[in-house]
Amino acid sequence: MTSTASNKTDIWSADSYGTKVAPFVAAMTTKIVEWLDPQPEDEILDIGCGEGVLTAKMAPHVGRMVGIDASPNMIDSFNKTFPDVDARVVDCRHLDRDASLCTASFDKVFSNAALHWILRDENTRANTIRGCYDALKPGGLLVSESGALGNVAEVHAAIIGALVHQGIPVDVARDASPWWFPSIEAMRTLVEGQGFRWVRGEVELRQTELTSGEGGGIEGWVRLFGANFLELLPTQDRKDAAVNEVVQVLEGVGRRQHDGAFTVNYVRLRFVAQKDFESK
Ligand SMILES: C[S@@+](CC[C@H](N)C(=O)[O-])C[C@H]1O[C@@H](n2cnc3c(N)ncnc32)[C@H](O)[C@@H]1O
Fold it and tell me: Which keywords appear in this protein's UniProt record, sorted alphabetically (predicted)?
């Protein structure tokens, strides 16, 4: 693992994320791409773009597409796979400080499955949303889908429980969560607080079937997306024991009866917000 722009461990791997664990994240995006409504003349900034599968799919249909992500691993893979699309390492917690992007020149700022990571730290939430605002032209749109209150709650709870069984105090285990899963009201308050007009929003329970191959499934999911939690445990044996407990606990929760596939309760929060036409 390398370090991110912010010097935190880079937990992301394009192979693990896009191939083994969660190819569905970039694929199950029909509704939010419909809300984005990409137009041939649009200039779009994709924040938390990852390894770029969705970004690059849209790029040929718009005027300009820029993808940004804090993970050097993801951007390295993006640049190798899609060399014609502009992709850069940017820690979006401090997007408002990026003079090259906060230029009031984008028609739309887009984000899929990333804001619940980026907005985890409450001290920088406003900076991210302010950066989106400053990147947009007057009248420009912020369009996002991310995890809502209750997202993957059974997995989240099982991970915290497994860490407690490994001797980690419960408040420490809770604080290690890399996610912020807000209610729609909390997201609206945040976005309006930075000057946006709330256009529309919705929450959807999406029972999501996980992958089943080597390196995927619920075990692969916990090892990749739960990596920040597992960092609390000092040895690989203890990490493996915690992962094994989570998998065993969830066996009794997520397995579908009719075909045996494994599902997790994703709760998605989608919204569109608009920058004031009168602003600069
Ligand atoms: C689940 S992936 C989503 C990737 C892509 N948008 C998609 O739809 O497949 C979440 C992404 O958010 C990125 N991310 C997390 N924290 C970030 C931050 N502070 N700034 C920018 N990107 C961040 C991660 O590096 C990761 O690539």
Answer: Methyltransferase, Transferase
